[in-house]
């Protein structure tokens, strides 16, 4: 069976809910006032129920305003003791710092008064130093007068010193080992056909001996149609061995060698 209250269009418990809401907001505001008692039924409330609601709202607003005014009257009531203690310590430190600064300023002033004007105190010392500089300058001028810069003896000494320096430089340069420029060369030696004896070709190539020529590793590389070429590496000194002359010397073995190409050329 359905509850008959489901079909009611009138909120009969409105006053209780409003009273509970007012009590909730009073607790949030921190007021310690006793909860408001529900107003007695009066001819005004029976007519519309709006007068009691207005009174409760007005009382709630008044209590909220009173709660907001309390911290302003006693600002330290809402501050924790730790913060108050820290503020007192900071104030004391500030006082100590000001006192120390004042002491330092006072000491500096006393030192300035004791030392006095540095310009006046140093006047005597500066005059004495100036006299010493003048005397030293006179002595230097006298020594310079004794030296004849344009004399024949000085010219001979300068010339002898210059020759000595040149000889020392030449001897030092001769002792220094000269840098030998070398190059790494890879040669491709191509045969006439696939019937060429490649081992014999390599032996003939290595028979070439020159000052500044060192033969290195070699290998056979496939060329085409079963024909292989000899790829051999050598190191040459640029001033002693010419790569073009070396190619011509290898091509002289014309029975086995068709041509010689430079595959790679790198400076060492």
From TrEMBL:
Ranges where the record places region Disordered: 33-79, 117-154
Domain Translation elongation factor EF1B beta/delta subunit guanine nucleotide exchange: 182-268
Biased composition regions of type Polar residues, renumbered to the chain: 52-66
InterPro entries attached to this UniProt entry: eEF-1beta-like_sf, EF-1_beta_acid_region_euk, EF1B_bsu/dsu, EF1B_bsu/dsu_GNE, Transl_elong_EF1B/ribsomal_bS6, Transl_elong_EF1B_B/D_CS
Gene Ontology cellular-component terms listed: cytosol; eukaryotic translation elongation factor 1 complex
Biased composition (Low complexity): 33-43
Protein name: Translation elongation factor EF1B beta/delta subunit guanine nucleotide exchange domain-containing protein
Protein source organism: Pomacea canaliculata
């Amino acid at each position: 069976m359905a509850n008959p209250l489901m079909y009611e269009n009138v909120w009969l418990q409105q006053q209780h809910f409003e009273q509970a809401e007012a009590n909730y907001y009073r607790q949030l505001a921190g007021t310690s006032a006793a909860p408001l008692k529900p107003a007695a039924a009066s001819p005004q409330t029976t007519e519309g129920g709006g007068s009691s609601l207005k009174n409760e709202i007005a009382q709630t607003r008044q209590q909220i305003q009173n709660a907001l005014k309390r911290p302003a009257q006693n600002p330290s009531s809402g501050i924790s003791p730790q913060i108050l203690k820290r503020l007192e310590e900071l104030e004391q430190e500030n006082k100590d710092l000001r006192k120390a600064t004042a002491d330092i300023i006072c000491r500096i002033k006393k030192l300035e008064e004791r030392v006095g004007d540095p310009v006046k105190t140093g006047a005597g010392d500066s005059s004495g130093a100036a006299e010493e500089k003048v005397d030293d300058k006179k002595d230097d001028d006298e020594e310079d007068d004794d030296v004849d810069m344009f004399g024949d003896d000085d010219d001979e000494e300068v010339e002898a010193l210059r020759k000595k320096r040149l000889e020392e430089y030449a001897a030092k340069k001769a002792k220094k080992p000269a840098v030998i420029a070398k190059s790494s060369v890879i040669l491709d030696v191509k045969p006439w056909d696939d019937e060429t004896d490649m081992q014999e070709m390599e032996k003939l190539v290595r028979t070439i001996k020159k000052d500044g020529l060192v033969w290195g590793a070699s290998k056979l590389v496939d060329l085409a149609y079963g024909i292989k070429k000899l790829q051999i590496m050598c190191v040459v000194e640029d001033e002693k061995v010419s790569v073009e002359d070396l190619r011509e010397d290898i091509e002289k073995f014309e029975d086995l060698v068709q041509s010689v190409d430079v595959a790679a050329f790198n400076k060492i």
